[in-house]
Specification:
CATH superfamily of the largest domain: Resolvase, N-terminal catalytic domain
Largest sheet: 4 strands, parallel
Order of helices and strands: EHEHEHHEHHHH
CATH class of the largest domain: Alpha Beta
Protein name: Recombinase family protein
Pfam family, one: Resolvase
Number of strands: 4
Oligomer: single chain
Keywords: DNA integration, DNA recombination, DNA-binding
Radius of gyration: 21 Å
Strand order of the largest sheet: 2-1-3-4
Number of domains: 2
Number of helices: 8
Strand content: 5-15%
InterPro entries: Recombinase_CS (IPR006118), Resolv_N (IPR006119), Resolvase-like_N_sf (IPR036162), SSR_resolvase (IPR050639)
Structural class: alpha/beta
Organism: Pseudomonas kulmbachensis
Distance between the termini: 51 Å
Length: 208
Amino acid sequence: MKAHIYLRASTKDQDAGRAKGMLLEFAKAHDLAVAEIYSENITGTKLDRPELMRLLSQAQPGDVLLVESVDRLSRMEPEDWAQLKLILQQKQLRLIVEDLPTTHRQADKSISGQLMAVINDMLLDLTATMARLSHQKRVERIRQALANKRAADPEWTPPGKQKNVRLWESIEALLEKFPSASADQISTLADCGVATVYRVKKELKNKV
């Protein structure tokens, strides 16, 4: 059985490929042949995502869509989540979620198999709803915090994301130690996103 691994992170600073190794091991342990790995840095609140759409276009009936957790696949509104499930059903794709064991078992036509399919569908819906609500609450907390700051000080403006000096120094040291290493290899050694490595390299280049 072929598996299509989908990896997602919300921002460019996050490492979308963080779970790649774990999912490859999972696929191997469950006799799944990995057809392709799709990775993107994009919000999970929208259904229309380039790599997800490419996966859905390329996957064949009977293939598996493998993700680390439901929130990597969806933080969408109920209508979009229902649309995605319909697409999976129409294309006859099986969704396996690494941290949701009920999805690991192939449903059959027995009574117990049909019952498990119903339970699994309910758990997927519940988990997707929790992921969406968690995202909405986080956004609302940030909005309230910013509003409170501005109310207390009308002249205040957000400082922006600060550079992690220790991480940047670590990346610089790795780049110096392994000059022929790729950005992916450096990001793995530094335990950071590839985008951060590129920013460090750009800053070093500008210093020359």
